[in-house]
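Appendix C: a fully annotated inverse folding record. The material below is reproduced so that readers can follow the format used throughout the book. The structure is listed first as tokens, followed by the designed sequence.
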């Protein structure tokens, strides 16, 4: 079926213009500028006048909780929330039950997603102290990368011994996505603060326990290893101004050290613990306003290369407690694009930069085949946005299975009107089309 989406404000590859696109057989058949006409007649026409059309968001960092933690979320529930938020593809993390640290567990996740995912998908393979021998058996065209916890994990997914880290970095050509927090520093901080504040200090102590120094030292070590072994490294959820000193602003073809920031770290600061409490407790911790503002600036300097959510739903009961007992992580994927569009309204970043960091860069850095851009012949993953649809987020519209969001009660000027995946409309004006299923991402490696 040929479909014409006409009269939209198109944002793509640093450019903004009035135009239309033709979708045919899951792909973009034409991109038409204002005044031009499609080459052939269309079966269906959608008038998008007044709306913005951008490539679908690619979220390179999510926790969808399946298998094993499905009381918090499932691939089905969280992919539906993603579709409502303008996200058309995701890369999911391995700390499920069982952990995705065996080829069998990896295969199971792909099977679940093929059956249940509303949008496109891939999965990280989790590194442990003793599974680097499996890296060579991973399909590089299907698996997005290796996930490495250099802190903030338990069991066999915490890898912080130098010899084991060396083994991991020397055993793969896949991108390594790394969580950087130094466990020894964190444990020393816990000992000091609990001696003074009790066994479960107030959540406001979370950024003191998971300190700037813990993040900096771990990130420094990861970058040193990546340079030594010439590995593509993705430093996840940068949270401090100091870590930015380790990152280059150069945007070159031979750059191999990339950094991610989350909407939460760009939106909140430690003052927000007073209002939101453990709802914004995550690892690494939300830190100072100075850190938040430095992260915002680093987006323009290209020290920050992409924006990923670290979407991590928890049952509300899991968020009870303080800095040590309440679970870390928050559901954010449904409202991440809206949160970043609010920063556009506030002049923090341009909409072209938003599209670069949330759509183009994930596709380019991970070498995703024919997604992330509005180009003729590319797969038709895109979003229609209404810039004049102010609304306040209500509990009943939250689609994550956990049923809450730190953005509940927030007012956004923009709304996601439609989300298209592989040439099909999966979300339209508040309704999910549950007949649509995503596809496994392919990587051109």
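Designed amino acids, in order:
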């Amino acid at each position: 079926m040929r479909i014409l989406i006409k009269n939209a404000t198109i944002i793509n590859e640093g450019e903004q213009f009035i135009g239309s696109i033709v979708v045919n057989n899951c792909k973009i058949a034409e991109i038409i500028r204002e005044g031009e006409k499609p080459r052939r007649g269309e079966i269906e026409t959608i008038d998008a006048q007044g709306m913005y059309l951008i490539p679908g968001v690619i979220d390179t960092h999510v926790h969808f909780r399946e298998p094993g933690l499905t009381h918090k979320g499932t691939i089905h529930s969280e992919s539906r929330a993603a579709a409502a938020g303008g996200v058309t593809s995701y890369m999911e993390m391995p700390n499920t039950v069982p952990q995705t640290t065996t080829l069998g567990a990896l295969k199971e996740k792909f099977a679940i997603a093929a059956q249940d995912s509303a949008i496109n998908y891939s999965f990280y393979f989790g590194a442990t102290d003793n599974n680097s021998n499996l890296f060579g058996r991973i399909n590089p065209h299907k698996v997005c990368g290796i996930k490495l916890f250099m802190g903030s994990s338990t069991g066999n997914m915490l890898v912080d011994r130098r010899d084991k880290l060396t083994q991991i970095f020397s055993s793969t050509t896949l991108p390594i996505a790394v969580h950087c927090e130094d466990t020894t520093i964190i444990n020393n901080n816990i000992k000091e603060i609990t001696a003074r504040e009790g066994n479960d200090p107030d959540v406001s102590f979370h950024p003191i326990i998971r300190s700037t120094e813990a993040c900096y030292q771990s990130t420094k070590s990861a970058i040193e290893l990546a340079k030594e072994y010439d590995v593509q490294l993705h430093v996840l959820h940068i949270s401090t101004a100091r870590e930015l000193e380790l990152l280059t602003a150069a945007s070159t073809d031979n750059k191999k050290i990339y950094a991610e920031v989350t909407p939460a770290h760009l939106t909140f600061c430690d003052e927000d613990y007073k209002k939101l409490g453990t709802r914004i407790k995550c690892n690494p911790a939300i830190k100072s306003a100075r850190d938040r503002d430095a992260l915002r600036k680093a987006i323009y300097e290209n020290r920050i290369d992409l924006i990923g959510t670290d979407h991590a739903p928890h049952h509300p009961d899991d968020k009870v407690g303080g800095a040590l007992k309440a679970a870390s992580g928050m559901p954010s994927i449904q409202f991440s694009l809206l949160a970043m569009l609010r920063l556009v309204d506030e002049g923090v970043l341009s909409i072209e930069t938003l599209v670069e960091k949330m759509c183009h860069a994930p596709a380019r850095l991970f070498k995703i085949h024919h997604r992330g851009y509005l180009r003729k012949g590319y797969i038709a993953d895109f979003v229609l946005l209404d810039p004049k649809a102010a609304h306040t987020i209500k509990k009943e519209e939250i689609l994550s299975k956990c049923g809450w969001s730190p953005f509940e009660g927030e007012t956004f000027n923009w709304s996601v009107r439609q989300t298209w995946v592989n040439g099909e409309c999966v979300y339209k004006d508040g309704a999910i089309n549950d007949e649509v299923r995503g596809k496994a991402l392919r990587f051109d490696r």
